[in-house]
Q: What sequence folds into this?
């Protein structure tokens, strides 16, 4: 029996095991939405803005490892998801975005709500296709899911013209994909892996540098095995957090621009760098010419373009990091000496790192008048019993969260790393909560980022997504303000957010619980009450507007050139800062 | 250094835009580009002349390979190859220059494919040096219009023993 394109679409999603679609309707996708509402297997989460849908699908995908699915209309519907696509492309998030398109006979005529969806999304998708014939729809959807989730994952856009959704074709969901130009390498070259294993045994000052690729390929167990067997410390990029327990004695936490002093020093003085699913991003490497100057480099990545893109690799290994690490661990186990010997061999290096850590641990000055953001995150980490999915937005709060919320499991840390998308956190948290209704999902955000997608509060209410929003409200675009203090003589151009809404009233307006803490001694109670609450909560926590995030490698600096605290001249100006905040309890609006 | 890269692609809508967009998005240079179907109508061959140091060329090869519709990528400069380009050159021909134009064309075995009272259009096929040498010689006569196809290239059969075929950079990593 023949089916319409819209029926084929829904059937295909069912075959792919899709349970949730995030989206918003419009003229050319009406037929698809009409079919969606007449079935029960696939639930639509109606967002209030398409960007929200894209980030929710990202959050869903990052938390589950499955493809997140977006369905939006043509024109503005599509252009509104571009930020989400670009974000997913940078952070390798498997996403399948379906966009409506005007009927095939109107394409190119500047029809109502027409946009060149495929053209616009080309540079920010792994692959995209305009479906011109309903007979190709099922095959295209099959391939879209396969491409999005295999190899280095990424977003795929499928553009469906209105007439394709209404015309009929025989439906048979294909068993296999037919992509002769696409065949990701999974297992690594044995010879290369052997060489790498030999280097690992030889090295005195080895370090494992783990990126987001390790999370996507579920390599946490293999990394742990390698680290423990060979006694090698592990550092993670912002995207890699969670792939090795932050509380493990061999964990060095995050590296790079706001990484630990001991971590970056260890990078700088290492003699062997084992890069696992990481791409040597500039926020990680700092000044490339002085990055890991003494290290031999083993680089394992499924994407050949990541290897030798910005930094050299002595032993490149193309393959899925989980598969490669498995191969490597087997080899190492057969080569390795006894455990005591290995421990003794690595001991001086681990001792040196420990000394660096003792000399300059992560630190901040607690205050009894004003709330320190680091304090909030530390308490949150403890109170959530180290067991939560955390989504963050972008900026200072994100870096504080990366430093102080020591995630222990992969897929529990959802953040926008590559693109640095403010507004990502809240919808991403909703997407994760949708996937795991029983889990504790936190959204650590700030007043700047949160206001970029706060319209989704109503989506949270509608679907009872009990996300706990911890809003670190410092009245500034904090990271911008920090850079202006450090590099622009304290001229706060457009970083001071003069008028800020009353977030407690805002929460109440949407029908959710709003809480506020303005003094350090109120933090504990607010966090406890918020975390205990059954539904969504917005906790407005007023933090020190002038707190800076350290350590910091200034842009273009090298790993051993970290700033560890405010320079003296800055401490002076901050004291007399003109925009020192007067906390006005009850109002929640920061005075100018 | 200059490289000639042959990219075999699926003959589908938007593939050329994807390949060209990859070069512009990453700041790679395209010196010339030619596209035409192959014997198999489902595929096309894109010939790209580009320039860059070894790491850049390695990235270009890898990035091209990453495109889903790209089937194979070969850097012909790594092998022994033949390349050709065709140009159509329309030169002004004052009466006293008409013989000179024919003489120059003859030397290069170029053909005069069109003539008007004031112009000749000369067709030349050859490697880049030859085409450019002809253009330089015709310049003094006055070139009114010039169109070049961009280069196409093909690997020589590797029965010869000289210049062993090197492994393409891509396979090494």
A:
């Amino acid at each position: 029996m023949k089916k319409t394109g819209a029926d084929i679409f829904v059937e295909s999603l069912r075959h792919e095991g899709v349970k949730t679609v995030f989206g918003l309707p419009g003229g050319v996708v009406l037929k698809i939405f009409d079919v969606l509402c007449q079935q029960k297997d696939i639930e639509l989460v109606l967002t209030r803005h398409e960007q929200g849908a894209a980030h929710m699908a990202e959050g869903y995908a990052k938390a589950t490892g499955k493809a997140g699915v977006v369905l939006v209309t043509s024109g503005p519907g599509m252009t509104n998801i571009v930020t989400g696509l670009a974000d997913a492309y940078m952070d390798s998030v498997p996403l399948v975005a379906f966009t409506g398109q005007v009927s095939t006979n109107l394409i190119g005529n500047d029809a109502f709500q027409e946009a060149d969806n495929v053209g616009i999304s080309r540079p920010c998708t792994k692959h995209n296709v305009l479906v011109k014939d309903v007979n190709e729809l099922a095959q295209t959807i099959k391939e879209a899911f396969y491409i999005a989730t295999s190899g280095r994952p990424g977003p795929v856009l499928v553009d469906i013209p209105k007439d394709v959704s209404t015309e009929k074709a025989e439906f048979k969901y294909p068993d296999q994909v037919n992509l002769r130009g696409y065949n990701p390498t999974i297992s690594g070259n044995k010879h290369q892996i052997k060489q790498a294993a030999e280097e690992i045994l030889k090295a005195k000052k080895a370090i494992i540098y783990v990126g987001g690729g390790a999370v996507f390929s579920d390599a946490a167990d293999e990394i742990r095995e390698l680290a423990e067997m060979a006694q090698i410390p592990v550092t993670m990029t912002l995207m890699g957090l969670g792939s090795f327990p932050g509380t493990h004695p061999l964990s060095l936490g995050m590296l790079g621009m706001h990484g630990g002093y001991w971590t970056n020093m260890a990078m700088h003085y290492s003699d062997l760098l084992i890069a696992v699913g990481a791409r040597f991003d500039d926020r990680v490497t700092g000044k490339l010419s002085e990055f890991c100057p003494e290290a031999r480099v083993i680089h394992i990545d499924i994407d050949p373009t990541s290897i030798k893109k910005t930094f050299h690799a002595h032993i490149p290994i193309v393959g899925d990091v989980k598969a490669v690490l498995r191969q490597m661990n087997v080899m190492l186990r057969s080569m390795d000496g006894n455990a005591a010997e290995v421990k003794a061999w690595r001991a001086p290096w681990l001792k040196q790192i420990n000394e660096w850590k003792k000399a300059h641990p992560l630190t901040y000055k607690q205050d009894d008048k004003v709330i320190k953001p680091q304090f909030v995150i530390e308490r949150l980490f403890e109170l959530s019993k180290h067991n939560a999915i955390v989504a963050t937005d972008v900026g200072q709060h994100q870096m504080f969260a990366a430093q102080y919320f020591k995630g222990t499991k992969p897929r529990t840390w959802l953040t926008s790393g590559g693109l640095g998308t403010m507004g990502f956190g809240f919808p991403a948290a909703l997407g994760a909560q949708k996937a795991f209704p029983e889990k504790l999902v936190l959204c650590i955000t700030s007043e700047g980022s949160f206001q970029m997608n706060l319209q989704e509060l109503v989506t949270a209410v509608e679907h009872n997504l009990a996300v706990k929003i911890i809003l670190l409200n410092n009245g500034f675009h904090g990271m911008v303000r920090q850079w202006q203090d450090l590099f622009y003589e304290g001229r706060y151009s457009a970083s001071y957010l003069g008028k800020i809404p009353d977030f407690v009233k805002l929460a109440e307006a949407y029908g959710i619980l709003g809480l506020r803490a303005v003094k350090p001694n109120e933090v504990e109670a607010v966090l406890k009450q918020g975390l205990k609450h059954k539904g969504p909560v917005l906790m407005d926590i007023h933090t020190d507007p002038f707190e800076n995030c350290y350590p910091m490698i200034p842009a273009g600096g090298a790993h051993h050139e970290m700033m560890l605290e405010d320079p003296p001249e800055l401490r002076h100006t901050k004291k007399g800062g003109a925009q020192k905040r007067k906390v006005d309890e009850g109002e929640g609006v920061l005075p100018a | 250094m200059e490289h000639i890269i042959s990219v075999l692609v699926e003959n589908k809508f938007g593939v050329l835009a994807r390949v060209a967009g990859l070069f512009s998005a990453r700041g790679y240079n395209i010196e010339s580009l030619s596209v035409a179907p192959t014997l198999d109508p489902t595929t096309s061959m894109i010939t790209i002349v580009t320039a860059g140091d070894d790491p850049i060329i390695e990235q270009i090869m890898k990035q091209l390979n990453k495109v889903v519709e790209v089937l194979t990528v070969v850097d012909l400069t790594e092998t022994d190859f033949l390349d050709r380009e065709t140009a159509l050159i329309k030169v002004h021909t004052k009466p006293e220059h008409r013989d000179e134009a024919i003489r120059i064309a003859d030397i290069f075995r170029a053909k005069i494919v069109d003539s008007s009272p004031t112009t000749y259009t000369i067709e030349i096929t050859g490697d880049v040096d030859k085409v450019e040498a002809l253009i330089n010689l015709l310049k003094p006569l006055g070139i009114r219009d010039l169109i070049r196809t961009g280069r196409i290239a093909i690997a020589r059969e590797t029965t010869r023993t000289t210049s062993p075929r090197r492994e393409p950079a891509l396979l090494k990593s």
Remarks:
- Residues 2-170 of chain A form a domain with the Rossmann fold fold (CATH 3.40.50.970).
- The interface with chain B takes residues 118-119, 122-123, 126-127, 130, 132, 147, 179-182, 303-305, 307-309, 313, 316, 318 of chain A (CB under 8 Å).
